Amino acid sequence: MSQLYDCVLQQIFKGFLTSNEQLLQQLANSAAQIFIANECLVFTLPNLYGFAQAWCATAEMNSAETSSAETKYVEFRKELYSLPTNTRLREWGGVVEIEKASDVHEETLYKLVRI
Fold first, then answer.
1. List of residues 6+ apart from 79 with CB closer than 8 A
2. Which domain holds residue 72?
């Protein structure tokens, strides 16, 4: 599992579910098109990836791991789908669902909801 994937789960998703004030403030100020709507964290995978790179770099993650190229994004996306992401999120009271599907994969909107 990559450090970026782990950071998304531990720092961003868990931070949202536990109402981490610093994260919530950063999300409110973010230009990355990852936002809170109807008490859900809404995002596309490319925008989540971009936000995660910046957030995880400030969270003292390995900058070499979080700096990206297109292949890094593809690896990140594969991890989200192949690892038990929702299983781990359920432990913290959340789950990722599709908000709005799109024929263009990068435009599909997802949402992290509290369960």
1. 1, 2, 5
2. 3-114
If 0-12 CB within 10 Å is exposed, 13-18 middle and 19+ buried, where does residue 6 land?
middle
Q: Six-digit token pair at 105?
A: 């994969």
pTM value surpassing 0.90: no
Write out pLDDT tens, residues 47-90: 999 999 989 887 654 444 444 455 689 999 999 999 999 999 99
Instruction: Quote the number of domains for the chain.
Output: 1
Chain centroid, CA 34 distance in Å: 8
Q: CA 33 to CA 108: how far, in whole Å?
A: 13
